[in-house]
Amino acid sequence: MCVVETTACQTCAGLGVAHVTQSAGYIASVITAETQSSSSCGSSKCPWKIEVESGQTINVTLLDFALEQRASSSAVGYVSAENCFRYAVIKESPSHRSFPVCGGHGRTQFVYSSVTNVIEVHVVSPEVFSQKGQFLVYYEGK
């Protein structure tokens, strides 16, 4: 069963982030679309802050529900700067790492492995406000 995180959006007003502390779960682009006029949960105004236990890292997988595949590549999972349809950006401190989450390359795609136990996910694609860019991000502490 897939349960999408929504309760973290309540922390947007006080913390400025939607703070998630479960060791694994799903965040959905549709939550950002539905809260755009209130808390903007998941957007750059209130990004998802995923925090797992100290000493763990976070693996991130994209589940892409786009109506059409936007780019093609001969190598499975290959994403280059010129064919990235950017859904979100993963940011990680203190190294100030920033990594795009690119859609349009297949239904399921591993996209990131953190070096710390905390990351932020900023949904940046305006396509999430239509049926063209819907996605889930599955995260898991390891």
Walk me through the topology.
Elements: H1 12-15, E1 18-20, E2 24-28, H2 29-34, E3 48-51, E4 58-64, E5 85-92, E6 97-103, E7 108-113, E8 118-123, E9 135-141
Parallel strand pairs: 1-3
Antiparallel strand pairs: 2-9, 3-8, 4-7, 4-9, 5-6, 5-8
Give the tags.
five-stranded mixed β-sheet, 2 helices, mainly beta, 7% helix, Jelly Rolls, 142 residues, globular
Distance between the termini: 20 Å
CATH H-level homologous superfamily name: Spermadhesin, CUB domain
How many structural domains in the coordinates?
1
> What fraction of residues sit in β-strands?
35-45%
Q: Report strand order across the widest sheet.
A: 1-3-8-5-6
- Give the second-level CATH assignment, the architecture: Sandwich
Per the CATH scheme, the topology name is Jelly Rolls
From the alpha carbons, calculate the radius of gyration and give it in angstroms: 14 Å
Q: Sheet bearing the most strands, described? A: 5 strands, mixed
Structure commentary:
The chain is mainly beta. 7% of the residues lie in helices and 37% in strands. It has a single domain, classed as Spermadhesin, CUB domain (Jelly Rolls). The strands form two sheets. A five-stranded mixed sheet has the order 1-3-8-5-6, with no helix packed on it. Strand 5 and strand 6 (97-103) form a beta hairpin. The radius of gyration is 14 Å and the shape is globular. Residues 71-79 have low confidence and may be disordered.
